[in-house]
Amino acid sequence: MIPYARPDLGADDIQAVLQVLRTEWLTQGPLQAQFEDAIARYCGVQYAVAVSSGTAALHLAYLALGLGPGQKAWTSPITFVATANAALHCGAAVGFVDIDPRTYNLSPAALKRELEAHPNDGPAIVIPVHFGGQSCDMEEISRLTRPRGIAVVEDASHAMGGTYQERPIGCCQWSDAAILSFHAVKIITTGEGGMILTNRADLYESLIRLRTHGITRQDDLFQQPSHGPWYYEQIDLGFNYRLTDIQAALGLSQVSQLTKFLARRCEIAAAYDEAFAELPLIRPWRDPKVSSSWHLYVIQLVLDRIKKSHRQTFEELREAGIGVNLHYIPVHLQPFYRNLGFKPGDFPQAEKYYRGAITLPIFSRMTQDELNFVIAQVRKVLLR
Ligand SMILES: Cc1ncc(COP(=O)(O)O)c(C=O)c1O
């Protein structure tokens, strides 16, 4: 079975990790800071805070922005559950904004409608998700949120290495913060890991404390007189969300290969685009303002031109050895969210998308033979 994603780990990555095991810095150490610097430089952002997962990054970003009980966070229903769950962990309520049927990203037009419908009970934070690696329309989202004093956190878990208006994803020009995930299937990996990017010094100060239990050793922040050189204070309620130096070593080695990873993903997407032009499916939309990181290549079946159902097509592709997947079941249809009051029909575009979407394999280590095999099987299953 050719999986939909696979980490790209080579001899240099393995060597980098082994090297750390020969030092005494196993948890947060010098490599974490180097990894943060490397990502901040790449993304053109001032501050980067490495954490133990993308989920932890979301949680801390929302907390640092002050999200809490009595407030709302709005995101796209086509995302991984973590984007929404992290807001619930802050004690806030979650709302969704339907997707644009062309980009599969949170629709700025729907956001405008929802904001106008909720002049006094709108969200404190909006979280656009750069689905599959393709940036949301950040300029438009920022134009709608900034005048209303709404914070924006970009969920860029899929989008490391992508660009929007020729600026790197994560530069935070149109947002308060952006988060990345370094989970094993992402563009670069640390096994598990994540990062928060921001240009706001106030958020940065808060994030580094929240990552380590709410503790500070910075004497200008002490609320009591210092007891001596060992002194530290807990001034917030934080977590242990640190990334280890073992993971940071892998991350640094992976960042150094990012250009190569992205180039191969682009080649695969271009080959799929060309091979599938005549098939009864909709290929991913290419926004001229965006260069995608191609974390996912999602096709949308044109069901009235295919002699089988979505499910049957999916099953036949799996039987043919293609590890297709489906990103995502709309979050509001999960039982947990149904219990919060969401129901089928709430976000029609997201639900329509779900009824026809299939994720094809795309990963930088994909060989030409694997690529040819996927193309041949997709053609066979869809034309049969
Ligand atoms: C869109 C999105 N947001 C958040 C996450 C959470 O990231 P992590 O798995 O690193 O916690 C993921 C990971 O799958 C994701 O795809």
Descriptive account of the structure:
It is a single chain. The protein has 13 helices and 15 strands. The chain is α/β, with parallel strands linked by helices and 384 residues long. The chain has two domains: 11-255, Type I PLP-dependent aspartate aminotransferase-like (Major domain) (Aspartate Aminotransferase, domain 2); 258-383, Aspartate Aminotransferase, domain 1. Helix 1 (11-21) runs antiparallel to helix 8, helix 3 packs across helix 4 (81-89) and helix 3 (54-64) packs across helix 7. The two termini are 21 Å apart. 48% of the residues are buried. The protein binds pyridoxal-5'-phosphate. Pyridoxal-5'-phosphate binds at residues 53-55, 79-80, 82-83, 129, 155, 157-158, 181, 183, 194. Pyridoxal-5'-phosphate binds next to helix 3 and helix 4.
Task: Summarize this structure briefly.
The protein is of the alpha/beta class. It is 36% helix and 14% strand.
| Number of DSSP E strands | 15
- Report the order of strands and helices: HHEHEHEHEHEEEEEHEEHHEEEHHHEH
CATH architecture of the largest domain: 3-Layer(aba) Sandwich
What do we call the CATH homologous superfamily of the largest domain?
A: Type I PLP-dependent aspartate aminotransferase-like (Major domain)
Q: What is the CATH topology assignment of the largest domain?
A: Aspartate Aminotransferase, domain 2
Cα(first) to Cα(last) distance is 21 Å
- Given as residue ranges, the uncertain stretches (5+ residues, pLDDT < 50) are none
List cofactors, ions and other ligands.
Answer: pyridoxal-5'-phosphate
Structural class: alpha/beta
**Mean of residue pLDDT?**
97
Q: Name the helicity range.
A: 25-40%
Number of self-contained structural domains: 2
Lateral strand order in the biggest sheet:
1-9-8-5-4-2-3
Rough shape? globular
Number of helices: 13
Main sheet summary: 7 strands, mixed
- Beta-strand share of residues: 5-15%
**Rg from C-alpha positions?**
21 Å
